[in-house]
Structures
1.
Amino acid sequence: MLLLHGTGGDENDLVELGRALAPGASLLSPRGRVLERGMPRFFRRLAEGVFDLEDLRRRTAELAQFVREAADVYRFGGARIVAVGYSNGANIAAALLLLEPGVLAGAVLFHAMVPIVPQVVPDLSSTPVFLSGGRSDAMIPPRETERLAELLQGAGARLAVSWQPGGHSLTSDEVQAAREWLAKSGLLSE
């Protein structure tokens, strides 16, 4: 599993989540290399909800290269990587799906929005994706999560969408729903 933290997090933030979602799975957890007011992120933004698309493209390509190199170094099949991201981490995971198809076997996206609309929408028909959001999320309004769902469905992703009534916080219900989805998805077999 590729664990991708939210703004202000680090490489340790999602380790327990990764263990809860897939006990026994190998975990790869990088720290975002962009600092915003001292808080790590995976790519720059120009304002709340407005992304620096040039930086996003560059950072997405860098992350894809990191995953490929890690697959070589640690001798795991690159085609078996499942991203688990929260907020900013979920957004770059979505960017990986859209801009670097084939790097991820699937993804769990907690509280994500459309990071970028690619010029050519990739074929994600063999890619399972779990997307969750909060109906009262002020940081990522539900309509933004719905837009991402529409984009992923348009690319053919095998999408499951889960809503919780709260805001931007990750809930135990979301984690449980993602865990159940992962168990059924076939992504963790072998």
2.
Amino acid sequence: MNNVRGFKCFDCGREHRLGDVEYVCSACGGNLDVLYDYERVNAQLTKKSLADDRNLTMWRYRALLPIDESSTVPPLTVGWTPIYDFPHLARQFNVNQLLIKDDGRNPTASFKDRPSALAVVKARETGAEIITTASSGNAGSALAGICASVGMRSVIFVPATAPPAKRAQLQIYGARVVLVEGSYDEAFDLCIAAARKFGWYQRSTGVNPFTREGKKTAALEVAEQLNWQAPDKVIVSVGDGNIISGLWKGFRDLQALRFLDRLPQLMGVQSATASAIVDAANGDGRVREAEAHTIADSINVGRPRDATAAIRAIRDSGGRGVTVSDDEIVQAIPELARTTGVFAEPAAAAAFAGFKSLCASGMIKSDERVLLMLTGSGLKDVDAAVRALKEPLRVRPDIDELTTLFEAD
């Protein structure tokens, strides 16, 4: 691996050499952080080299990713998703600037294309023929789509309650889909057992350390797209915790490379009925597992698999966790769409609901630049969006009847 020098366990702190571990810490079973030789990275990656690079994908940061120099990356255009500036919303909520990064613009319409693309590269480096993951929908869709682009087989474990659109997307891409009559956490455990039994490459969040490396590319893009000036706050929804820990990893990498002078605060948003990480981050740091029930299926997690790193990201950044109700999440979908033109799925819209809550509580200052990380397209779960809508007008093909309705409106 190009610039990787080893791994370090988030839980016990033990370091491991390359080749000594596959997924998790051999001493305690904790999640692993990928360690880099930043001097070598600095020799290959500079602000000028990036400015000259016309490869506008996540692979522009290849020197800061754990892949072999000879490895072929998938052909789909993953990453370099747009950042939008909405001054009218900034004025409405009394903040200096409100930015939205729309990762629903990735090939399979979610943030999860980033880690899945990297996981496929790593799986092919090992010679694996089949890769698997547990998913509430987006991670599986992303993996299935990336696998389809390179002719690789995938097996995806999802709760039977996953939205039909996400289940259909998995099958359209040709994945072998296993619907688990249970929660996401139960689907996760079955996926782990199946990978061990059948020898499949494991992509699942919180087990494979490289998923965090794929997710950190969003932070690298944010910094570069904002001309190396980090936002004051980055707000993102939290499920397993891997996205927020990945964002923190990306910003810290850039600080280590001396690309950034300061780091943003990370604000994690969860549903009040699936809030293990937020409760721990705002409380005593201890994760208390509980059954999760939220309309935001992408963050419907009762046993978060990357909790230690996520809590550390929130606390070390000086950030905070915030919970919102499912009603607030549902209402945020049309409000966000009608004020920005961005249609977000429930988990992504939760970031906007969290932003509103933070503004109301005074935790966002009027001079701050805030970025919302939106992680998935609303087309992933149209049924959830419909809950916030009124029945449309219904008329006969008669202009007089239409006139009467419009005049009465």
3.
Amino acid sequence: MTEGTGRVFRGLHPVDWLLAGALTALGVVLMLENVHLGEARAAAAVADGTMVHLTTSHSWAMVPVFAVATVPVLWWRRNILAVTAIVLSTMVAHDLLFGWVTRCGAGLPLVFVLAYLGGVALERRAAVLMLLLSSALTVAVLVVDATTGLEPVVFALPVVLIVFGVGRAVRHRTAMSAELKARTVELRELRDERVALEVAGDRAQLSAQLEGLLQERLVQLTAAAESGKDLDPVAARTLFESIESESRATLDGMREIVGLLRGGDVALAPAPTVAHLDALLARHTQGDSRLTVTGDPRSLSATLELSAYRIVEHLVDVLADQPDSRIGVAVRFDVDALEIRVDGPVDRSADLKAAVARARERATFLGGSLDVKVSRGHARAVALLPMPG
């Protein structure tokens, strides 16, 4: 297809091809009937009242000439008024060239389609002109129609007006829908802007709150640390445990505020500890998961608590969660170490090597160790984490 031809057919929709094709096919069939209609049959039809006039032409030329009136419908989106003017001119030429033949069967559907499309596509003034052209086209179709004559024009014109009115109603409704969508988008943008301003104000307030919290707690902790210079070991230990507890509270408050500042990206809950291992195992809902704690449970440092939890989390997450799975986690508080044992079937799709590496990194950081053995798809891990006396 050349560039010029491509430009002619650019922008045509499949429905345009379907519409123009259907009208052209209908016109070709009707014109072929005119070509093959014999004099005897025409005279009989006039006699019994099914036709009002004998056909005055049987020329094959009426087929392509009528097609000239239907094919331009393809381009109605570009200029419906120009298309209708071409159709009207062609129909008048058809009347003059071939006289009394049957046109209403294809001509009236063509008029109705153009009237509707004009009603949908045009502004008010142009739409009025379109209505006048459609009315003139109706007359051109029926004025020398051998089957109906001009009498049905009194019924056809109201139908054209109704079809045109339906097109105008569709246009109005489409315009209202587009306007509502535009207003909805505008309102959504205004709402988002308002929310963004509110969030910015809240974050500024939270930032000031965070700064005040840090200053207050740092002053308190500094004063507490300085007061422990002359204390005996037992009193000093009690003081430092108090400092640790206050530090945890400070971190929890900071975490909550930072979480709000980041829109919830940071968890608002306190850091997980050994006490949260039950909740961790509860994620495995299909298998039989059990937690056993032995020894002398006691409060641990925040780093040790979090590391113990993460080690168990890394290992448990690669174990299979199946109805026949049994996952065991045992935590033993010894005098100078925390022992953690995890065993269960390994999930075939999990990356056991990466999980073990992360867990071992946690244990090594605290000066501990992690030993993992895998046999026939079953893993057994033992972690030892030293606890300061």
